Amino acid sequence: MTNHLKLADSYLRLSDEEKKYGNESESITNQREIIRDYCKKQGIIIVSEFVDDGYSGGNFERPGFQAMLNHLAAGKANTVITKDLSRLGRDMTESSYYAERFFPEHGIHYLAPGNDFDSMGDNLMAPFQFAMNDVYLRDTSRKVKQTLDMKRKKGKYAACPPYGYRKAERTTDQLVPDENTAPVVQRIFALAAEGQSCRSIAKQLNEDGICPPLKYRVEFRDNFTDRGAARASEFWNYTTVKRILRNRVYLGHTILGKTRKVNVKSKKKLPVPKEDWAITENTHEPLVTQQQFDLAEHFLSENTKANAANPSFRHSIFGGIAYCAHCGAAMCSGGSVYKGERKKYWYLVCNNLANRTINRCQHGARIKYEDLLEIVRCDLNALLSFDEAEIEQITQEAIRQANASLGVENKEQTLADIETKSKRIIKMIERAYRDNAVGNLSDDLLDEMMERFGKERQALEEQRQKLLTDTSEDQSIRNAYTLFFDIAKRYSHIEKLDRDILHTFVERIEIGEKILPKGQKIASPRTSYRQSIRIFYRFIGEMNGEAIREVNKAVNL
To answer: Which PANTHER family match (predicted)?
Structure first.
């Protein structure tokens, strides 16, 4: 303990799994009582309380925890208290980082009385305590997985209900038809059984104003964050329709375990082989008959096979890479055949322009396929030709541009000045609380001062973080450029651009409108025109240069 006045934020956390497998000693109420009793004995003032009830300790993106960090950054407290280290978190690496590095480095005193942990002490047993909390996290994950596996084997639906169904009111693991969306699913299968394409079905649903699956979940069923809700499209697309037509859950079967998490600490999911899926038949009311499902699958397969078997079918290498710069839609392959020529009239066209959907792009991008191939190939060959000196120059320029907005000559001195100012503000905060405690400062004036001090400290902290981030960003940029050009050194010259090479180097391409010569209304095959083509490379992003390029110009590198 120090002689400084301790102004504490108390943090309480309890996961849903701990409610099931834990005990009363871990409850939010019990944590609150233990912390308050400890603070009373130690003369610590609790400024605010932050709670995450129902959040796992495996990650730190919890609303209560993040709110506490913002509160601390505003200078409203200088101490954090949790009942024990497990309440801070159960991930060994992250918990240790916050307890032993982040809080001390930001002038925050962290206490966990249940483990006799004090960030100002030696804490010899801390590594073992963090490790045991990590073991508990893994053990709880194992128990949850066993419970889910048991439910799956019994045909219970232990997942988010698919579009067309909802969970029964009496039980949370039985699917029943959703009266609002089940008719839409049945309509999709009926149209598909008539031979209509997924694009045609999506267009009809959009024209009728039918709410698509993710948007329906956001608006009427599930709780989404603002960030998650923003991802929900207002319109149907052919991939959503195709996904519904291939889902056997609409036959009344429960199919789970299609993906699995990489590990207990990762959110990333990997596909599971079909033979390992958990499939239980006839577990709920079907929305379509086997005959309807088979017929829809037949027409779906026929269309796919016909295109794949057609030797003249255009197979674009830019799928998932080329996008319209105006609306963000993917570029699809299109064109016509004239006098037996296909490649000459092969284009990439904005998907929202080509399909003529109700949200049709007003400035849809369009570019000749061969022209884009040549532009990307030439750009790549230019990069492959750089020597070590040129690569170093490019890297230095990228670092310089990244730091251009900082406007700081001496980072070390600026960081030292920020630290001095922050310490002075903390002392002023402590003095103000002492004056208020003895009656020399009114509550209203104290609140006014705390608000001003908080803003000043937050501004200093933001400046400090920007400086620290910028310093580490320099090395991050250098590492990215080193990785990119290490890969580039495996190639000497690209004669023909294929999909493997494209995906090795290119992350995204954004195609804009054509800029035709003055007085010209259409692009002539014999003359060049200008067009915005932005190429974003893997690891390093967009290279410096002019995005507006000359197209239809003979270039050989």
So the answer is: DNA RECOMBINASE-RELATED (PTHR30461:SF23), DNA-INVERTASE FROM LAMBDOID PROPHAGE (PTHR30461)
Please give the average per-residue pLDDT across 146-170, as a whole number.
Answer: 72
β-bridge pairing 79-81 and 175-177: unpaired
Average pLDDT, the chain: 80
Strand-pair partners of 240: none
Structure tokens at 143: 């128990």
Closest CA to 543 of 432, 372, 395, 422: 395
Whether 364 is covered by a domain: the verdict is: no
Residue 141 maps to which CATH number? 3.40.50.1390
Residues 6+ apart with CB under 8 A from 150: none
Q: Are 28 and 14 in contact (CB under 8 A)?
A: yes
- Say if residues 534 and 509 touch (Cβ distance below 8 Å): yes
**Domain shared by 13 and 144, yes or no:** yes
DSSP β-bridge partners for residue 541 = 537
* pLDDT tens for each residue of 402-450: 666 555 545 667 778 888 888 888 888 888 887 777 777 788 878 888 8
* Residue 427: both structure tokens together: 């002392």
The model's pLDDT over 32-42, given as tens digits with 9 standing for 90+, comes to: 999 999 999 99
Distance CA 435, CA 446 (A): 9
Label each residue of 498-519 as H, E or C. CHHHHHHHEEEEEEEEEECCCC
SS3 336: coil
For tokens 């829809």, the residue is 296
**Higher local confidence (pLDDT), 65 or 227:** 65
Instruction: State whether 30 and 104 are in the same domain.
Output: yes
| pTM, two decimal places | 0.43
Bridge partners of 534, per DSSP, are: 510
Please tell me the distance from the alpha carbon of residue 356 to that of residue 204, in angstroms, as a whole number. Answer: 12
Task: Transcribe 133-184 into DSSP letters.
Answer: HHHHHHHHHHHHHHHHHHHHHTT---SPPPTTEEE-SS-SS-EEE-TTTHHH
Supply φ then ψ for residue 491, to 5 degrees: -115, 145
Residues spanned by the domain of 55: 7-148
In this structure, the number of other CB atoms found within 10 A of the CB of residue 412 comes to 9
In this structure, what token pair is assigned to residue 190? 């009926």
Long-range contacts of 330-336 (CB under 8 A, 24+ apart): 331/365, 331/367, 331/511, 333/369, 335/369
Task: Determine, yes or no, domain membership for 165.
Answer: yes
**Residues 441 and 470 grouped into a single domain:** yes
**Structure tokens that stand for 432 in this block:** 């103000």
Q: What are the beta bridge partners of residue 341?
A: 338
CA distance 5 to 431: 9
Secondary structure (3-state) at 409: coil
Cα–Cα distance for residue pair 202/281, rounded to 1 Å: 29
* Contact status, residue 115 vs residue 129, Cβ threshold 8 Å: yes
CA distance 210 to 417: 59
> For 264-306, what is each residue's pLDDT tens digit?
455 556 677 777 676 778 888 899 988 888 888 877 765 554 4
Amino acid at 248: R
Q: Is the model's pLDDT at 46 over the cut of 70? A: yes
